[in-house]
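Backbone-to-sequence.
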């Protein structure tokens, strides 16, 4: 698989795996505005985040983080 210039061969592009928005379109303000990311729920399948407009407080989007939980080692006696 051929990558982009400067990318090592054999590794897929992973630059957008953990994307976090800094500004989104707000329908109330009718313009792109800076947003605040807020944790809404902690679920077994991943955390749910809400993006709110910093100017007016309108919810403008959400994101689900599906990062696998860390493995726990069980100690038996």
């Amino acid at each position: 698989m051929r990558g982009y210039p400067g990318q090592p061969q054999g590794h897929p592009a992973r630059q957008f795996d953990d994307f976090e928005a800094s500004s989104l379109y707000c329908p109330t303000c009718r313009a792109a505005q800076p947003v605040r990311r807020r944790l809404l729920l902690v679920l077994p399948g991943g955390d749910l985040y809400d993006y709110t407009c910093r100017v007016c407080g309108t919810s403008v989007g959400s994101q689900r983080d599906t990062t696998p939980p860390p493995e726990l080692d069980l100690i038996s006696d």
